Amino acid sequence: MSKVKDKIKKLIFKLRLKFCTAFFPQAAIIMRYKRNFGRMPDLINPQTLNEKIINKMLYDRRPILTLVADKYLVRDYVASKLCGDQYLIKMYASVDTIAGIRKLNLPDKFVMKPSHLSGEVKIVVDSKMLAKGELEKIAWAWLRRNYYHSFNEWAYKHIHPRIIFEEMLEFDGKIPDDYKFFCFNGEPRFIQLVKSGRVKRPTNFYDLNFSLLPVKLLSGNFYEKIEIPKNYALMLEIARKLSAGFDFIRVDLYNVNGRIFFGELTNYPNGGAFRFNPSLWDVEFGKYWDYNFSIKNYPHRNS
Q: Which fold would CATH assign to domain 43-85+172-293?
């Protein structure tokens, strides 16, 4: 009987969340936070990283957030900040219609991703193995979605949908590890290193000296010894340049055989749902985000 009650509660929650997402997006953001952490977020005096991300989602409407969330337009932004495109992954093509895909001449290996969504990617290791119309079917599903209507992350709301085709990065035959720099007021403070090629994508957190921090997420830690990249100082400098002018942003980079590649800039990592274990690290990360979260300090509050 208790299992039936739990299913009913989950169904009711999903229906309420769907309703709020459609008509009261700010309420939906708060509902998700309460579901994840069992309490309401402090919107008046936020202390944790997650609470501050939630506040940013609710109130920050600066156009720059949309620009850097757009995986197509951010390329020009990065090139302007880093004085050239030497850190950009090679782009083969971009289209905004399904018909455009049929005209492309793509290599055997490539990565396909949408400019306007988060977490979606199609890795093609041999284009000859693709089913007829497979890419068009995926693109059709992507192009009709607005990520804002799924998770209420405002930065995605007004991005023009495009499909991007890029070079596939490889390191020892695998997708390279992902270095994620948590930057506060233009200064990197923590590094999240995500191991590729694993189902759960285990992740470790390090300080800037690459000392392992005693914290983990639900995906768990990994235990391989990590060598500091020889051009690590350059990675930090790139993170500083790309995060300059932001109260908080995460800068994602790859390092493949000593060559650094830009991944993405992330306004709302994990949607404000980092399940730090122990939870005190939620507060520790939040300490570096020095900002007055009064609504009046976010002047662009248009929908």
A: D-amino Acid Aminotransferase; Chain A, domain 1 (3.30.470)
